[in-house]
Specification:
The protein has 16 helices and ten strands. The chain has 463 residues and is α+β, with helices and mostly antiparallel strands. Helix 3 crosses helix 4, helix 5 crosses helix 15 and helix 7 packs across helix 8. Bound molecules: zinc ion.
Length: 463
Amino acid sequence: MQWTVRLEARTSGGEVTTTELVTFSRPAVVSTLAEVGLVLSDTKALLAKLQASMLCGQVAAYAAHHRACVGCGALPPLKDRRTRRLQTLFGTVEVEAPRFKACRCRQPVPMMRATVSPVCALLSARCTPELERVQAELGARTSFRDGVRILEALLPVSAANHESLRSRTHAVALRLEAADRQVAAEITAVRDEPAKAAAADERRPVVMLDGAYIRAVPGHQVRSFEAICGKVEREGQPSRRFALVRSVAEQPHALLRAALQDQGWREGDPVTAISDGDPALPALVRSATGGPVEPILDWFHLSMRVHHVEQVMGGLRAVEPPPLAPLDRAQIDVERLRHLLWNGHHEKACEALGRITGWAKDATVLDDPAMEARAKRLLARCTELQAYIENNEGALIDYGQRYRTGKPISTSRAEGTVNQLVSARMNKCQQMRWSPQGAHRVLQVRAAVLDGRFGNQAIQLAA
Ligand SMILES: [Zn+2]
């Protein structure tokens, strides 16, 4: 049995043209399940023919419409017919691009403008914005090679290599970044009444930042480089991700600024920044806002260091013969550490650490090698925690109180963002190596894709 698909095109004037697209030959009485219905190869052929037919018709109509001189309305003579190729999701289409002589009423004209090609003006890029968007999205989600395979498997898209998928992804990333820079530059301060300002302060955006390391391509001066990933959250709104490689971002702070603006932040509004002990992270937030930033040290990172002290103490208590009486006092201090830090008493925590280190120093000179080794380890862990507390003094808060009001105290959600943005696309398992610039650009698209703000934005930017 045969099925023929015909395309009927009807102009607004009622003129109808019919084009035969494809004919499928399939058994009418099937013998296996595989013979039922359309198959992919049929569908690809149909889509390619349909696309070519529609597109050529539209382009021809466009050329005819734009042939008339804008000055006098006369139709200038045809000079020659050329062709142009346009890549689309449904195949590459070759279209006619007639060139017309410039109208007499426009004379004299400079030599280069002696001909007019309306189609060339329409086809301002080699591919449709939609193809570029889909290629960029695939390039951000999966490896460039896999992206090419997926597209070719499902659509009649013309053969492409991973290089072109990469360059499309990069081109879209550059536009996303430029759009962010523009948004960042346009943010202005708005003065609110005190009541409104207080309400805004209650819902102030929280920026959670974390770093991730990406393996560098061979020949790069370092083996790996850092990407900063984060999330801006504000009560009652979906969160906004951002990511950047600082060394290659044109204006790193502008990317964060645009993300903040997306969450309703305005110049001068206070912002909370949660990060681990890296001072560069809150500094980035400060440069993005140019205003007040409340830094908070991530509870998880602090808690891990307390846990290390607790662990070593547990090891000391297991030493035979039973430990000395002063160890019991040190044990009490270790038990209080977590409670003190959770409730914002970091000075008291430092005093407790001082007592524990004092005891550990005494214990290292005891005549017991097992005890001595463990005491040294306790000393090291305590010194580490104390230094961490002192270095981040301005970012320590009453975690308990903040936690009870339902506000975030940890970057765990930022770490999730790192996994989604970096690890899933660039991690070691995939044996991928990146140039800082390539990684930075893919991260721009990936953040937009994962936020769900990519589709329309990418097409608008291409237009
Ligand atoms: Zn004219």
